[in-house]
Structure formats: C-alpha cells, structure tokens
Amino acid sequence: MNRTPVVFIHGAWLHALSWESWAERFASRGFLAFTPGWPGEPYTVGEMWKSADRFTDVGLDLLTDHYAKIVDSFDIAPVIIGHSVGGLIAQHLIGANIGQAAVAIAPAPVNDIALTAPPAGLWHPGQTDGTDPLVSLSSDQFHRLFANTVTAEESARLFERYAVPTPRRLLADLGCADSVRSPRAVADVGNARRGPLLLISGQEDLLVPDAATRAAYKQYGDSLAVTDLKQFADRAHSLTIDNGWRFVADYVLGWLDEHGLRSHP
Fold first, then answer.
1. Residue 265 and residue 261: Cα distance in Å, rounded?
2. Which tens digits make up the pLDDT trace of 252-262?
3. 41: exposed, middle or buried (C-beta count within 10 Å: 0-12, 13-18, 19+)?
4. Are strands 166-167 and 134-135 parallel, antiparallel or unpaired?
5. Distance in angstroms (rounded) separating the CA atoms of residues 72 and 78
6. Residue 92 φ/ψ, nearest 5 degrees
7. CB-side neighbour CA atoms (13 Å) of 177
8. Which of 113, 60, 105, 110 is nearest to 84 (CA)?
9. How far apart are the first and last CA of the chain?
C-alpha cells in the first residue's frame, strides 16, 4: 500500500539532521519521512562547518525552488512541515497548491508582517563593509536567543549536534536589519483551494515571537481553507529539537489525523 510522504524543511542555523527524531516518529506512524537538506548540504554538521563557504549564495529563491521541485516530485502529494525559514517556505508552497497540507512551526514572517529587530551585531544586510557572508551563532548566543527555555547543558548539546552557519544573503532576503525583503517571502493567504495549514508558535520564542505567528494566522482569516493555530507555552525557537519536541510532533500527528491526513491515503 502506498504511504503518505512528509517532507521536513529546516530553517536557519540548523542542519537537516535536526529533524532526525521527527522523521523516526513519523515513520513509526506509517508515514514516509524525508529530510532533504538545502541544495548541496553535506550529510553531517561537521562537514557543513568545513564547507560552509559553498553556501554563501543560498537565498530564499534557491531554497523555495529547491523544495518546490522536491515536493512536486512525489506521486502522492506530501505533507510539508517546516521550521523557521522552512515554515515560511511551507506556507508559500501550500498557498501555491503544492503539497496536500502544511505545518509551519515558528515560521519566519510572510508578506508584510513585521520582523523582530535582530540582536545588535548579529547580522547586517550588506557586505560592503567586509562582513562575513556567513552568520554563525556562538554556543552562548544559541542558548540566549535560540534555546532560551532549556538548561545551558541541554543547549550546548543541541548546539553541538545541530547548529551550523547561515548565509547572510538569506537573512537579507527575509528583511533582516532593514534590508529589502525578497518577493518570495510571501504566501497566498486568500487561496480557498489549498490544503489545510497549521501554524505553531512557542510563546517564549525570541527569534520568531508568538505575536508574529498570530499575525500570520490573522492574515488567513478571510480564507475558506482550513487554517489552525497552536501556541505552546514556555517554548522557544528550539521547540522542534529540545526535550519537548515530542509534544509538538505528536500534536502535529493528531492534527493531521483530525483532518484525514493519514499515513496511508
């Protein structure tokens, strides 16, 4: 019997390995789980750090087209699950009727939703001042900004296993530091024919605040398509990888089941 595919899309500062627990959990429930990395992304975090210079030109256009081709390549339309930038891409794809459903977890803001001001010195939109085309988080920054609801010990383990640099170009495409946001940082919020969409936020998220996800949910208010919002209290941007990941994953599995999106069509 054919099984429903699920395509996981990771975001900035994380490697595709960050979906390892989710992929195992979804596979155990009968889904075909796929965790494709960014174009040319190495299989390990260590290799990513060694070859990160190859990714300086990765922007939102390239990522969106890359995942659109992957999702569109299946005989059975996949469920798309994205985190951060991946959540933005998931919304863009489902709004374009690519995929049968989407889950956007702590998604980077779409359309005209305001971005949170970046921490001082973390990134800049231009490179004319000689700034590094890659933006890395230190272990301390990762704990302070990304995994701010877990212990320092757990944050350090997560950083060691999953954290990688991210291209400054991608951050500029998202509109960070007052740069001009890419035309691809959009979602068709009025499409009534698209599949169901679930938006998820962590209420202690410092990188994509709960307010930004609620603002996205509000934009879908006039659509007749299914759009749901789930807020997780006391959770940060690390909610897909920290010790509470299973609560989020199981909520998503339950939501899919409620909407008839099961492992075997």
1. 7
2. 999 999 999 98
3. buried
4. antiparallel
5. 8
6. -60, -45
7. 14
8. 105
9. 9
Q: How far is residue 56 from each of residues 53, 166, 212, measured CA to CA in Å?
A: 6, 8, 27
Residue 119 has pLDDT above 90, yes or no: no
Question: Do residues 201 and 90 make contact, with C-beta atoms less than 8 angstroms apart?
Answer: no
Structure tokens at 255: 């939501």
Contact 86, 108 (CB under 8 A): no
pTM beyond 0.85: the answer is: yes
* Arithmetic mean of pLDDT over the chain: 92
Give the chain's largest Cα–Cα span.
Answer: 57
Give pLDDT tens digits for 122-180: 554 444 444 678 888 999 999 999 999 999 999 999 999 999 999 989 998 998 877 88
Lowest mean pLDDT among 160-164, 175-179, 209-213, 220-224: 175-179
